[in-house]
Amino acid sequence: MHTYKYFLFLVIFFFLPNLPAEASEEEELSIIGSVWQLDRNSSSSKFSGHGQVLYFFSSDAYQTYNARKFSHWDTFSAVDSRDLVRLKKHQKIKLQNSKFNEAIYEVTLLDGFYAGKTYFLIADELKNFTQEKNNDEAV
Question: CA 78, 60, 70: angle at the middle one, nearest 5?
Answer without folding.
Answer: 80
